[in-house]
Write a structure and sequence with these properties.
single chain, about 60 residues, mainly beta, 4-stranded antiparallel β-sheet, about 10% helix
Length: about 60
């Protein structure tokens, strides 16, 4: 997958950052699944957002742009 493919497949829908830490919500445009990316300094992690039942948060097609 090229860098251009990544730019067209994923969309940052929310970003909150301070000097060396922050969070982003990233949406996979193909699947609608949303991920939380969190970082602090040089460390970070990525996980799918889950609903109250433990299922991945998926943006419905009617909500997509």
């Amino acid at each position: 997958m090229s860098e251009k493919d990544l730019d067209t497949r994923f969309n940052v829908t929310y970003k909150e950052a301070k000097m060396t830490s922050g969070v982003k919500i990233i949406e996979d445009k193909e699947t609608g699944i949303q991920y939380l990316f969190s970082w602090h300094g040089y460390a970070g992690g990525l996980t799918p957002l889950l609903d109250k039942d433990g299922q991945p948060v998926i943006k419905e097609k009617s909500e997509k742009e």
